[in-house]
Design goal:
The complex is a heterodimer of chains A (131) and B (146). Chain A has 131 residues and is an alpha+beta fold. Chain A has one domain: Roll (Thiol Ester Dehydrase, Chain A), CATH 3.10.129.10. Chain A has a five-stranded antiparallel β-sheet, covered by helices on one side. In chain A, strand 4 and strand 5 form a beta hairpin. The termini of chain A are close together. Chain B has a domain of 95 residues: Thiol Ester Dehydrase, Chain A (Roll), CATH 3.10.129.10. Helices cover 21% and strands 35% of the residues of chain B. Chain B contains three helices and five strands, in the order βαααββββ. Chain B has a five-stranded antiparallel β-sheet with strand order 1-3-4-5-2, covered by helices on one side. The chains are: A alpha+beta (131), B alpha+beta (146).
Chain lengths: 131, 146
Amino acid sequence: MADLNEGEAIPELRITPDKYLPHRYAGASGDFNPIHIDNDFATAVGLPRNILHGLWTMAQVARAQTEAAGGDPRSLRRLSVQFRGMGVPEEEIVVSGTVTSRDGDRAIVATEAVQGGNGIVRNAESELELR
Amino acid sequence: MPVSTEAVGKQYPETTYEVGLEKIREYANAVGQAEPVHHDREAARQAGFRDVVAPPMFAVVYSAPALGPAILDPDVGINFAAMVHGGQEFVWGEPVCAGDEITTRAKVQEIYEKDGKGFYVFESVSTNQDGDEVVRATWTNIVRGV
């Protein structure tokens, strides 16, 4: 578990969603919007290809937080994100963050998720309770 | 055309969701959460949970059904062709475990216009079978060119 003192980075999370990840996440989450699972539909509405669910990408940001805090899901008290741009399958995503403040057992972490130079989750802020 | 703010404060019927063990495992696998507390009953109990515990972002699964009617409400008037999911916040309370029954209530929190875009902000509050709050969520949808 990281010390998570103010100014420290949290361990970086790197993940490459495979081609069928959006289909598995659709089943797991119940979000079957065709822009995520139908390449023909996605390109017909002007997207480069089928795109990742934003809430899946947010879940990667959340995972980076709980892993930094030692793996206990209770450590993540709050997470807010802004979605920007679009994530796509089969390209690596890098989730990185920095502790912006620390007060006792509480840490505030600023995080972003970047894919191919594009920030797909920006201004993410979490509050962690360290146990 | 300016956005209509008449629906601000409107509340929608509550939904209930019964949390299944295999659904937690399926979700945890889809988002890459391999920690045993999300998969194994004994590991979860040893860590102090009633049963296998859901990853925090599983909140999406049990709270989204309450949001559907709010986002689709003609009184809110979202132009779906130009809508994107702009932001999301969760504030977590009690952990959610397999066997829990989660009730979610949604309302329109805020509607406003900024820089030619319409912002439609919804709040949902989810509680478990004991009445304890498990998550409070803020869902922001943005519509271009209102």
